[in-house]
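Per-record layout

source: Senna tora
name: Helitron helicase-like domain-containing protein
length: 298
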Amino acid sequence: MILKERLRFSNSNELRLKLIRKHDSDDRTYNLSPASEVAAHIVGDFDMSTSERDIIVENIFELLQHIDDLHPLYLPMQYPLLFPYERMDQRHQFNMILKAGKFSQQFMVDAFTSTRQRQGTFYIYRQKNYPSSSFTGGERYSRENFQDAMTICTSTSFPYLFVAFTCNPCWPELGKLFKELDCKAEDRPNLVSRIFKIKLNKLIRDITKDMLFGSVIFAEILNREAHPELCEAVKNFMIHNPCGSARKSLECMVNGKCSKHFTKKFTDRTSLDEDWYCKYRRRDTGNVMVKNGIELTI
């Protein structure tokens, strides 16, 4: 007899609820996560064996029915708190999807994985073997990009720069938006990705058209009095945290040495070592930068 029936047929109002768990279970499994983000860890790739979800609903005739995970009513039924009006179109109403924090992130992850699975399944059915090059991340996609890169190297020479551009949620543009919307960066990945794309296009334009790097590449600390804002940005985002004998407990410290090979030695010119690793020009200009209470020269 379930609790609802017990309450219906019992005259007693004194009830006690006791939750009994298995003693071999891990107490940390259902602990509240200290992180403010939600992510999906997908082992392997999407294939035919994982492309179907067993979703059963009861229709108006009280009959059980299978529905597809891309059915327009699947997400509203799975996330009723995000769709109180049972409709996807909420453009002229209060948009709960953007206000639910971690729950919104879970919804986005679920929607993305459902779409990604169906996209892979479509290409598998269409191509009869494996997805075409238009399927981002697929085998043909990676192979054609590799062949294009090798063709470019053949005609223009091999690259000598490896430029990494990452997103920073502390960008002032994002900070202003999040302050106006009263949310965090992880609550609005659409805004973060949009600003990132704008800045990435600007960087590519600076490199290809405005010749940002010029003819000499160096990594030196600038004069703070002449470039205060630039020095502050370099300190926050480009300088390795002080390590070595001053802070031996950091993760980068292995056998008493920095695994990232900091601090770097001074050198008067940019060159390549025996492994073709670029050693940037680092002259002893006398400029220092203070980070976490420790003076750094490079």
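summary: The longest strand covers residues 56-58. The longest helix spans residues 102-127.
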